């Protein structure tokens, strides 16, 4: 051991960096091999997914069905249920492994009813293999000065309390199957982006919840997995909807706030928001769906999944910088963003 320590201390900087690179490369190769191993008996692994009306949830439900997995899909609307069932019948046959139902993650009563339903239907599967907390909203894309506490509560009710409420309701079914909890967070759980206050707060919160229960539920054989996607072009970031919410926030703002910021700021903020999403949002939503599916079906899933080029190459590296440097970068970027009239 002593000779090994001496050998390390005698390495030059270049040699040390080379060895670190080789170790990291070996780690990546081994991880890649292990992550390709899939669990067996997928047809007996029941999966419960929230937010299946559109987007990631809809895509994940279809992918699980294609692999023969029993899928319990929570939808907010009857239209979502009907269209999901139609898709299942059309692309997967008769969709016999799909059970879609109405569910509101903000309602204790609604979630409780679903939990009872799952308790009955998952008996033959030996419990619930995975719950996927996918349902979410972005909230208004505008500065905190234009928001009130109700906006924060509305977003948190869905993005934070929704996953907690859902997870707690099916925890005993997960314990029975020694299952998995898969939750979508965001790069906004790593980096606080200006103009996305309520969304960022809720995602930091749900990420923290997952980090806590990962340790608490480990003795029960339950694993916990977080997705940290960047921006993807789904109904969640519908441009017209976002623009309408910004307009609503401006119209409802107190007169002193409007005067402080000025109408030019408001118009520029609308344009910059659209430009940002058009530039950075990826249309390849299959990346997120595949990450979800891997977390559910891999024998060796990751605890965290970074998804999308902006997450991997931009936001995650940025999150590791010292806060002071982050502030300088935000300040530099602010030179090209709308300015309040009072400045």
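Sequence proposed for the structure above (343 residues):
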């Amino acid at each position: 051991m002593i000779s090994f320590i001496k050998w390390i201390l005698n390495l030059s900087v270049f040699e040390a960096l080379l060895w670190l690179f080789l170790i990291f490369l070996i780690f990546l190769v081994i991880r890649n091999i292990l992550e390709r191993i899939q669990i067996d008996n997928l047809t007996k692994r029941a999966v419960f997914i929230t937010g299946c009306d559109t987007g990631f949830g809809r895509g994940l439900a279809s992918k699980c069905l294609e692999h023969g997995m029993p899928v319990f899909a929570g939808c907010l609307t009857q239209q979502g249920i009907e269209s999901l069932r139609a898709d299942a019948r059309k692309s997967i046959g008769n969709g016999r492994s799909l059970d879609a139902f109405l569910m509101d993650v903000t309602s204790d009563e609604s979630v409780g009813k679903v939990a009872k339903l799952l308790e009955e239907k998952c008996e033959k599967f030996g419990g619930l293999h995975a719950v996927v907390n996918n349902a979410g909203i972005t909230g208004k894309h505008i500065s905190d000065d234009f928001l009130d506490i109700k906006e924060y509560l509305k977003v948190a009710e869905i993005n934070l309390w929704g996953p907690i409420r859902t997870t707690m309701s099916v925890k005993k079914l997960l314990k029975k199957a020694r299952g998995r909890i898969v939750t979508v967070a965001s790069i906004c759980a790593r980096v606080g982006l200006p103009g996305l206050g309520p969304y960022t707060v809720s995602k930091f919160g749900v990420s923290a919840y997952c980090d806590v229960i990962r340790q608490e539920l480990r003795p029960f054989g339950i694993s916990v997995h977080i997705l940290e996607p960047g921006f993807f072009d789904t109904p969640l970031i519908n441009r017209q909807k976002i623009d309408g919410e910004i307009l609503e926030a401006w119209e409802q703002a107190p007169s002193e706030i409007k005067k402080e910021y000025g109408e030019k700021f408001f118009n520029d903020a609308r344009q910059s928001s659209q430009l940002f999403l058009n530039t950075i949002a990826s249309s390849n939503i299959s990346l997120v769906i595949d990450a979800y599916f891997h977390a559910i079906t891999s024998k060796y899933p990751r605890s965290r999944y970074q998804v999308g080029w902006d997450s991997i190459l931009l936001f995650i590296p940025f999150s590791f910088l010292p806060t002071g440097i982050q502030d300088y970068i935000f300040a530099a970027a602010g030179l090209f963003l709308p300015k309040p009239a009072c400045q």
